[in-house]
């Protein structure tokens, strides 16, 4: 159980939520295991299948407290909410900003600042920890270049120019990605991003990790009342979760890429865990895919200190925290969106 930005997150499995006066009561196996006053709670997010009492759902509906249900793996299921005026106002502001490329750029640039900052951190960490195994001078030069791009992005007000800067900076980072593979180098060679389909072992893992991260982010946005399909950097396209793709930009490297690199470097996944389709697509076999998914769930349970909020949370709650920060900015509670800048 974790209270974050006036939202209560119930992450323990098999927890039943009930109401006692002005308090939410957490029950497990017919025993009360927690109690939280509801007077300052704006939303409740629960992961699992046990459920909540009708009394609690009615209380939350009457007081406009969003009660969101997710599976234990983080997939959004449903949200119980009363009068929808809060979410309507929030979504209308989201749509208005999305319709304006200038206003969209002012939010989107913070996604990219977060992405480049975290890429820079990764390169600098490699230099510190593995300076004798890599070309440290190349890594240091790339870090300096990324700093220059961050300054440009910070003041960019044009979406097309922003995409160009992001692409150039991403090329610098991915140009060193192969050097961050320290084990199984012959079996995991990265020649650049190939998406549809992934054409090598590394891209097969990156595509799966990005897909999982996108799903988690879309679920977090749904839980907070935002429209995952209406983005600022990624423009409207039928069936594309554009806002979720926007918001995972800052988490791709620090969350997904590091996860994939750890599975390779720790030899959790090996060359024998893949198969190749007739069209050249490279995919994980069934059992290694389960290993990958189990490791992903374990990663989500790891605790970190959120760099902006200063709160200790699980990695799996980072998308939810960032969705809340975006919603607060859209409501004018924050001057600008605070990206996830890993330290």
From TrEMBL:
Source taxon at top rank: Bacteria
Gene Ontology MF, one: hydrolase activity
Binding site for Mn(2+): 166, 234, 249
Keyword Magnesium (UniProt): yes
Listed EC numbers: 3.1.-.-
Keywords carried by this UniProt record: Antiviral defense, DNA-binding, Endonuclease, Hydrolase, Magnesium, Manganese, Metal-binding, Nuclease
InterPro entries tied to this protein: Cas1, CRISPR-assoc_Cas1, CRISPR-assoc_Cas1_C, CRISPR-assoc_Cas1_DVULG, CRISPR-assoc_Cas1_N
Gene Ontology BP annotations: defense response to virus; maintenance of CRISPR repeat elements
Pfam families reported in the protein's UniProt record: Cas_Cas1
Coiled-coil annotated residue ranges, if any: none
Cofactor requirement: Mg(2+); Mn(2+)
Similarity comment text for this entry: Belongs to the CRISPR-associated endonuclease Cas1 family.
Subunit field text: Homodimer, forms a heterotetramer with a Cas2 homodimer.
Purpose: CRISPR (clustered regularly interspaced short palindromic repeat), is an adaptive immune system that provides protection against mobile genetic elements (viruses, transposable elements and conjugative plasmids). CRISPR clusters contain spacers, sequences complementary to antecedent mobile elements, and target invading nucleic acids. CRISPR clusters are transcribed and processed into CRISPR RNA (crRNA). Acts as a dsDNA endonuclease. Involved in the integration of spacer DNA into the CRISPR cassette.
UniProt protein name: CRISPR-associated endonuclease Cas1
Encoding gene (name): cas1
């Amino acid at each position: 159980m974790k209270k974050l930005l006036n939202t209560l997150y119930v992450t323990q499995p098999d927890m039943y939520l009930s109401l006692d006066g002005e308090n939410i009561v957490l029950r497990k196996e017919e025993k009360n295991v927690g109690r939280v006053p509801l007077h300052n709670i704006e939303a409740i997010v629960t992961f699992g299948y046990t459920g909540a009492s009708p009394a609690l759902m009615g209380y939350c509906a009457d007081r406009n407290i969003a009660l969101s249900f997710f599976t234990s793996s983080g997939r959004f299921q449903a949200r119980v909410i009363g009068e929808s005026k809060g979410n309507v106002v929030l979504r209308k502001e989201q749509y208005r900003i999305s319709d304006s490329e200038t206003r969209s750029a002012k939010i989107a640039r913070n996604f990219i600042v977060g992405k480049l900052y975290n890429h820079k951190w990764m390169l600098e960490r490699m230099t510190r920890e593995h300076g004798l195994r890599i070309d440290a001078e190349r890594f240091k030069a790339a870090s300096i270049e990324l700093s220059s791009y961050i300054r440009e992005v910070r003041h960019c007000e044009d979406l097309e120019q922003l995409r160009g800067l992001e692409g150039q900076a991403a090329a610098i980072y991915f140009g060193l990605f192969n050097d961050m593979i320290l084990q199984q180098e012959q079996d995991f060679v990265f020649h650049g991003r190939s998406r549809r389909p992934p054409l090598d072992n590394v891209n097969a893992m990156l595509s799966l990790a990005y897909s999982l991260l996108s799903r988690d982010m879309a679920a977090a946005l749904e839980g907070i009342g935002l429209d995952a399909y209406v983005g600022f950097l990624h423009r409207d396209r039928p069936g594309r979760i554009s806002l979720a793709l926007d918001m995972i930009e800052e988490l791709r490297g620090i969350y997904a890429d590091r996860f994939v690199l750890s599975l390779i470097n720790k030899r959790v996944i090996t060359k024998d865990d893949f198969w190749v389709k007739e069209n050249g697509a490279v995919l994980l076999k069934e059992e290694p895919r389960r290993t990958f998914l189990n490791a992903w769930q374990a990663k989500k349970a790891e605790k970190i200190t959120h760099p902006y909020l200063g709160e200790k949370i699980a990695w799996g709650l980072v998308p939810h925290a960032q969705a809340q920060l975006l919603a607060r900015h859209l409501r004018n509670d924050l001057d600008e969106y605070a990206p996830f800048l890993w330290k």
